[in-house]
Amino acid sequence: MTVNDEIIFIDNNSSDNSGGIIEEISRRNSIPVVLLSEKKQGAGAARNTGISAAKGKYIAFVDVDDELPANRFSILVDFMEKHKDYDMVFGKTLRVDVDRMLAPFLKCSGDIDPFKTGEIAVPHFDSAPHLCSFVFRRGFLSAKNILYPEDLLFGQDLFFLVNTLFQATKVYYLDELVYLYKRREASTTNIVKRTQDGNYNYFFLY
To answer: What is the pLDDT of residues 119-143, one digit of tens each?
Structure first.
């Protein structure tokens, strides 16, 4: 990575040795690694803990079982450094289990209509841009008081993403691969898709 990074891990009641592994990684690397604990179960509470602890100019999220291309942060942060009036930038996500790009309606780099993209994301969540393909300006999230809902059992990323899109002034899409997404059969999203209507009806009621 060519940018100054701060990596924040949130231990959300893990039952394995994840904390010990992260502490060992921290000792062996020069990148600052922060390990925090969040007792309230759920992705929303865990990510809000990370947002509150972050000190950098930008915030990005990574799910523990996904992968990042080597130049992922430098591509997105470089754009934000050169374009101070943008609230967020994102790139392409490859869903590796089916070898399919998400957000196929985005064909080339350029400004996007954030409100229109947010409207598309709700009913078509399965092909919406992945939250972890974004870099957000931390000042924007703070000024708009944007946080995760902590009482949703699933779909927190979609709620957070649509909230940012509806409140952003300028958003840019880069036609560069920045995230490798792996959907696991046992994931919460997959379980819900097998047991509920595919349009995330809970989201409209929230």
So the answer is: 777 776 767 889 999 999 999 999 9
Q: What is the 3-state secondary structure (H, E, C) of the chain?
A: CCCCCCEEEEECCCCCCHHHHHHHHHHHCCCCEEEEECCCCCHHHHHHHHHHHCCCCEECCCCCCCECCCCHHHHHHHHHHHCCCCCEEEEEEEECCCCEECCCCCCCCEEECHHHHHHHHCCCHHHCCCHHHEEEEHHHHHHCCCCCCCCCCCCHHHHHHHHHHHHCCCEEEEEEEEEEECCCCCCHHHHHHHHCCCCCHHHHHC
pTM comes to 0.83
Closest of 178, 77, 179 to residue 137, by C-alpha: 77
- How far apart CA 56 and CA 95 sit, in angstroms, is 28
User: What's the rounded Cα separation, in Å, for the pair 134 and 57?
Assistant: 14
Candidates 119, 53, 109, 63; CA nearest to 86 is 109
34-60 pLDDT tens trace: 888 777 778 888 899 999 999 999 999
CA distances (Å), 78 to each of 32, 53, 69, 110, in order?
Answer: 20, 23, 15, 15
Residue pair 140/148 in contact by the 8 Å Cβ criterion: no
| Strands 58-59 vs 171-181: parallel, antiparallel or unpaired | unpaired
